[in-house]
Specification:
Helix content is 75%, strand content 0%. By secondary structure, the chain is mainly α.
Length: 503
């Protein structure tokens, strides 16, 4: 058989179940890390820069893991599953320790380790759907991941609130100490993450390299006209553009230093510098004929990405910029605007922070429900139009934060955010997977993560500046800016070319 067989509901369930655990850990991180940072003494306008560990880690780890998993094969463990397992063990250990961090710098370091570990598991899970499912089932497969992401995240986001309101664990602690409700929530998260990933590892069989090669040949034969290969960049192009990026990055860093601009802008300059250095290194390797190594291959694939991937990159950039505005400033926005306090040791602040956890859990719950609706909406309209509609709902949800004053009614805002979140986690990946060669599914999925990471790097560089200069220290307006970013992403979706099919 040269065509990938369609998998049953329960097979798709099993191969996606591990995402429940991964998102359990990710949601605990998103909802509580800013709270931990503030408890350990971080100023509010430094929260964004403290989150820098996460995007930098993803920028480095995901393409490397993607490239390595493409080249991995074990008769017992398969191609992607070894990475699921290693990442889960490391992430669980980080979750157990993070709330016990004795100082702010330790907590920032633990965020780095936690995010790296989650990325080791998460990236191969994305490629896993492309490996295992035929094109007609991929929207369904990624939607199933979205369902488990929603279920895991809603429980994880509620965990501190459950601990304090249902179990009676203390929700307050002395200044500089993380409350027990958060500590126990992270312990539960570590256990759930490990067990859920183990379920997928031990209940799923992967296709062999020979089977994958046969599937790819069949797929190429079915396409009336294969898309033309993009011309390989020359040594001169790599070195010229790389040198230009290096010069711009170095000049930007010099201007920030010379004019006393916000030090966080150094992060942007460093990003430009790194892109330039990557191109220079790729050019030097190409000149020497050393094109078989991972560094050159990742650089080559980055600068020769398929057209659909480049179009989706724009959509992803603005979608994730919006999400990071919520994740970084959601707690401080709600506690200051809706609860009227920024005193992290007060009962009112901690009640507000717990309610943010409930809201985060709610949007993930709505995302779990949306995961069933999105494939239907995609069949009624198209995948592009379905994604545009959902991003528009997300924009309405974020902008409504400044309109709604009663925090209870913010639950309505979370409906829109939940639909956008479910769509972001499924539709772009379903569209992308249909434009990628199967033997490079892992590395391209890793490179696609750049367009999640880069907006976060920009967010941590400029959101603090925007907060002080444009919004007079009122974080609620950062969420409004996130809503505008969602609108831009929705408009860009219409420019995407979808090469796949949907049942």
């Amino acid at each position: 058989m040269n065509q990938k067989p369609q998998l049953s509901f329960w097979q798709i369930w099993n191969m996606s179940f591990g995402f429940l655990g991964i998102q359990f850990g990710f949601a605990l991180q998103n909802a509580n890390v800013s709270r931990i940072f503030q408890t350990l003494g971080a100023p509010i306008d430094d929260l964004a820069i403290l989150w820098l560990a996460a995007p930098v880690t993803g920028l480095i780890v995901q393409p490397i893991i993607g490239y390595m998993s493409d080249k991995t094969w074990s008769r017992r463990w398969g191609r992607r599953r070894p990475y699921f397992l290693v990442g889960a063990i490391l992430a669980s250990a980080a979750l157990f320790y993070m709330p016990h961090s004795p100082a702010l710098w330790v907590a920032a370091g633990m965020l780095w380790i936690l995010d790296a570990s989650i990325n080791i598991s998460m990236e191969p899970f994305r490629a896993f759907v492309g490996d295992m499912l035929p094109e007609r089932q991929r929207t369904r497969g990624f939607a199933m991941q979205s369902f488990f992401i929603g279920v895991g995240a809603i429980v994880a986001s509620f965990m501190p609130w459950i601990m304090s309101n249902w179990i009676g664990v203390s929700n307050t602690a002395p200044a500089g100490v993380v409350p027990d409700s958060v500590v126990y929530a992270f312990w539960v998260g570590g256990a759930v993450l490990l067990l859920a990933v183990f379920w997928t590892v031990f209940t799923t069989r992967e296709y062999s390299p020979e089977e994958m090669a046969a599937f790819e040949r069949y797929q190429q034969e079915q396409k009336a006209q294969a898309p033309p290969e993009r011309e390989t960049r020359s040594v001169t192009s790599y070195l010229g553009w790389g040198g230009a990026f290096v010069a711009v990055g170095a000049l930007g860093a010099l201007l920030v230093q010379s004019f006393g601009l916000d030090p966080k802008l150094h992060v942007l300059a460093a990003l430009v510098l790194v892109i330039g250095i990557l191109q220079v290194v790729a050019g030097a390797l190409l000149k020497q004929g050393r094109t078989g190594n991972g560094i050159y291959q990742v650089a080559h694939d980055l600068f020769h990405m398929p057209r659909t991937m480049a179009q989706l990159a724009v959509v992803q950039f603005f979608s994730w910029f919006a999400l990071f505005s919520l994740w970084i400033y959601g707690t401080s926005a709600v506690t200051s605007f809706h609860y009227g306090t920024s005193d992290t040791s007060s009962q009112l602040y901690n009640d507000g922070a717990d309610w943010v956890g409930v809201l985060f859990g709610a949007y993930n719950g709505f995302a779990a429900l949306a995961a069933f609706f999105i494939p239907v909406l995609a069949r009624w309209t198209s995948r592009k139009q379905a994604h545009m509609i959902n991003l528009g709902l997300g924009a309405a949800g974020l902008i409504s934060f400044v309109i709604i004053r009663d925090p209870v009614w913010l639950m309505v805002s979370m409906v829109g955010v939940g639909f956008a979140w479910a769509s972001i986690l499924s539709v772009p990946y379903a569209i992308l997977s249909c434009s990628l060669p199967s033997h490079k599914m892992g590395v391209y999925m890793g490179i696609f993560n750049f367009f999640i990471v880069i907006p976060q790097i920009i967010a941590v560089s400029v959101l603090g500046l925007m907060l002080r200069v444009l919004f007079d220290g009122e974080p609620i307006y950062i969420l409004v800016a996130g809503g505008v970013s969602f609108l831009i992403a929705a408009a860009a979706t219409l420019l995407v070319t979808d090469e796949g099919t949907e049942a």
